[in-house]
């Protein structure tokens, strides 16, 4: 569901240039201006289009503007106006290889597209090229319930997989809220509310099939391998987890799956201060309670959540928790966690035993981004995504909240606090550039703060275009040099999603 709030403008983008200033609604990013890379020539695209139609069929190739627009942006803040020149829908790994070979031959950029729920402009066509929509490859190709693994094509989404697994008493727990494609989640190293117990995509991907820029097919753990452990050579799988489409198309992912717990119990508990809530979280983890979810929402977020969902939770820093296990285990985990919350001044827990009630609770939590936008009609929001060692979280949140309050910007705060991962939605009116500037400055200060606290500029959304400026500070020059040399080895002409993670060097 894409909101094109700048459709009144007709943009003819210049080769390799981001639009500056002349659109009230654009939120430009400087690094694109520094690159000398150019869009492909019109003649090149015309020939490529004919070749693609010959190989894939007319129905699998489009150059209509509405479809190109739809594929050139995600759910995050618009960073520039560059559209892909073509959109294609491969139906198999072989067709992905053909696309890669044809694009490589003409030196045309390729941009993998999952479901477009990313938040850092990962799918935008920074230098034009071909957007490759993976949604038609939507089969579960290998399912081994007794080994707890499944292999999916890129069009299978998280909810689709869980719908299939449910009948077998199994589930895939990595949950970014949005119904993202599992290969898109692999590409961004997604996580979400269950990561504190079940890990992120990094811990849950066993093998990946990738079509490289030149059309070759790689199996990162070896073809058909699906062992839970391996010490065989370099960890190529984790090179591709988080590669954001910049190293190849992920055409299959083999994932760990889990038994649905006998019992799930959710709870909500309010605190007088953010520190008391985060201290509770730290102490729960230090006590080794195997908590499945522990999420924080601040007073601003709770107020919006109440108004929007007709709920009546206390407007205060609040923890959302969930316990999984056998009935006895869940009861004892919950009792222990309740005592810890009590010790930190938490008001009485409100429990949700039934799945309907639990779903309502988590829906309210997951919908908070949309709630924020709907509570501020006509506005957009910069979503921040930093992660720090958990003991640094109270400092980070307290300082960030004070900064937001001083700025006058609306900014609900929430986080997957069990992992030290923290977000704000910095609301701005797209018709007021000064508001966008303020929100951007706040986001920059928050990111710097996280890096100073030994954290990262992105816990789960990836670098895309939005975080490019921070990567070098986080990784240091040697780290960046190493990443770029891997990129150059696998994609010497920088054709795979150029202009993401770092500037195109070709
Ligand atoms: C309301 C909301 C809440 C969210 N909450 C969370 C959260 O809690 N945790 C979290 O981790 N994320 C969250 N996200 C972000 C988003 O859902 C993730 O980034 C998701 O993993 C992207 O998957 P996608 O299929 O939509 O990928 P897309 O947005 O289509 O693409 C994202 C990136 O991956 C690349 N890519 C996609 N598919 C492939 C492929 N098959 N091969 C190679 N590269 C590919 C793209 O080129 C792009 O760089 C949220 C998003 C929204 C809108």
Automatic annotation (TrEMBL):
One of its GO terms (biological process) is lactate catabolic process. The keyword Oxidoreductase applies. Signal peptide: none annotated. One of its GO terms (molecular function) is FAD binding. Residues 80-260 form the FAD-binding PCMH-type domain. It is an enzyme of class 1 (oxidoreductase). It comes from Daphnia magna. InterPro entries: FAD-bd_oxidored_4_C (IPR004113), FAD-bd_PCMH (IPR016166), FAD-bd_PCMH-like_sf (IPR036318), FAD-bd_PCMH_sub2 (IPR016169), FAD-linked_Oxase-like_C (IPR016164), Oxid_FAD_bind_N (IPR006094), Vanillyl_alc_oxidase_C-sub2 (IPR016171). PANTHER family: D-LACTATE DEHYDROGENASE, D-LACTATE DEHYDROGENASE, MITOCHONDRIAL-RELATED. Belongs to the FAD-binding oxidoreductase/transferase type 4 family. Its EC number is 1.1.2.4. Keywords: FAD, Flavoprotein, Mitochondrion, Oxidoreductase, Peroxisome, Transit peptide. Gene3D superfamilies: 3.30.465.10, 3.30.70.2740, Vanillyl-alcohol Oxidase, Chain A, domain 4 (1.10.45.10). It comes from the Eukaryota. Involved in D-lactate, but not L-lactate catabolic process. Its cofactor is FAD. This is Probable D-lactate dehydrogenase, mitochondrial. It is found in: Mitochondrion; Peroxisome. GO terms for cellular component: mitochondrion; peroxisome.
């Amino acid at each position: 569901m894409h909101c094109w709030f700048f459709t009144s403008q007709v943009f003819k983008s210049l080769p390799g240039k981001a639009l500056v200033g002349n659109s009230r609604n654009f939120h430009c990013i400087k690094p694109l201006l520094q690159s000398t890379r150019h869009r492909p020539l019109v003649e090149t695209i015309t020939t490529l289009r004919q070749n693609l139609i010959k190989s894939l069929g007319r129905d699998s190739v489009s150059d209509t503007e509405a479809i190109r627009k739809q594929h050139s942006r995600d759910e995050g803040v618009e960073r520039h106006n560059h559209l892909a020149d073509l959109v294609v829908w491969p139906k198999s790994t072989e067709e992905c290889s053909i696309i890669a070979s044809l694009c490589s031959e003409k030196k045309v950029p390729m941009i993998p597209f999952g479901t477009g729920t990313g938040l850092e402009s990962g799918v935008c066509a920074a230098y034009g090229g071909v957007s490759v929509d993976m949604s038609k490859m939507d089969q579960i190709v290998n399912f081994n319930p007794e080994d707890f693994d499944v292999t999916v094509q890129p069009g299978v989404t998280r909810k689709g997989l869980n719908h299939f697994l449910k009948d077998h008493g199994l589930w895939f727990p990595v949950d970014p809220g949005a119904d993202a494609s599992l290969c898109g989640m692999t590409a961004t190293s997604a996580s979400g509310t269950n990561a504190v117990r079940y890990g992120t995509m990094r811990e849950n991907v066993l093998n990946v099939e990738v079509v490289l820029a030149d059309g070759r097919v790689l199996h990162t753990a070896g073809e058909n391998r699906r062992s839970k452990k391996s010490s065989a050579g370099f960890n190529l799988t984790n090179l591709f987890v988080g590669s954001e489409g910049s190293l190849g198309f992920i055409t299959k992912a083999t994932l760990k799956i889990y038994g649905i717990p006998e019992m799930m119990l959710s709870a909500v508990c309010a605190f007088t201060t953010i520190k008391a809530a985060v201290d509770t979280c730290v102490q729960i983890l230090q006590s080794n309670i195997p908590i499945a979810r522990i999420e924080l929402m601040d007073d601003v977020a709770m107020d919006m959540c109440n108004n929007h969902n007709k709920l009546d939770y206390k407007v205060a820093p609040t923890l959302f928790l969930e316990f999984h296990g056998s009935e006895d285990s869940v009861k004892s985990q919950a009792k222990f966690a309740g005592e810890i919350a009590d010790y930190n001044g938490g008001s009485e827990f409100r429990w949700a035993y039934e799945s309907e009630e639990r779903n309502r609770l988590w829906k309210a939590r997951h919908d908070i981004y949309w709630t924020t936008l709907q509570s501020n009609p006509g506005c957009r929001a910069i979503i921040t995504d930093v992660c720090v060692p958990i003991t640094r979280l109270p400092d980070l949140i307290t300082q960030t909240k004070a900064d937001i309050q001083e700025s006058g910007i609306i900014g609900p705060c929430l986080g997957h606090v069990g992992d030290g991962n923290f977000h704000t939605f910095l609301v701005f009116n797209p018709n007021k550039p000064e508001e966008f500037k303020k929100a951007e400055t706040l986001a920059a200060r928050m990111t710097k703060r996280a890096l100073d606290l030994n954290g990262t500029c992105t816990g789960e959304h990836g670098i895309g275009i939005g975080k490019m400026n921070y990567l070098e500070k986080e990784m240091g020059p040697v780290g960046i040099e190493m990443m770029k040399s891997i990129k150059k080895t696998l994609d010497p002409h920088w054709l795979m999603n150029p202009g993401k993670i770092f500037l195109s060097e070709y």
